[in-house]
Amino acid sequence: MKVMAEVEFRTIEPKILYFGTPVALISSLNEDGSTNLAPVSSFWALGWTFMLGLLDETKTADNLGRHPECVVNLPAPDMWREVEKLAPLTGKNPVPQIKAKQFRFEADKFEACGLTQLASEIVQPARARECPIQMEAKVHRLHSMGGERLQQLGGGVAAEVEIVRVHAASQFVLGENYIDPQKWSPLIYNFRHYFRLAENELGKTFRAER
Q1: What is the pTM of this model?
Q2: Is 150 helix (H, G, I), strand (E, B) or coil?
């Protein structure tokens, strides 16, 4: 039996609870047919269904409620600067009061961060060409999220989306339908700092096919 070293625990109240989550850039359709692009770091997958965590006062939440399609673009770690250029921008005009101190309106998010639009094959919002993985998706429903601390940020929704098409840069594809975990690393958001996955594999689950 492994002997555990004595550990002292402290009760703390961090402002956020991002214990190392991937970053995604969500493409959504604006009222005029243009594509909004926004970073999120609150999402998870079960099979081909994703849950995207969005604050209510975002253009992405507005767009998904009006037009139920999006693209989940996954940037590579070396794209963190482009992601950070997007971070203080919003597609809402005027800027909501709760965001006004830190955010500014930007109509063309792609131009602002130096990324390129690429037409999707099934959905209307455009993909981000520079992202090595792009997943077109249909929105099934928006779930209202509770919690006192979340309400202090204006409230939030969990967007339930189904991935309908996956595009991956060929250098990360293993065989016909596998992403090579030895080559691919997502951009990780860890307590408001950007990281990449460690390069040394620890092991694999019994369900791994390769």
Answers
A1: 0.94
A2: helix
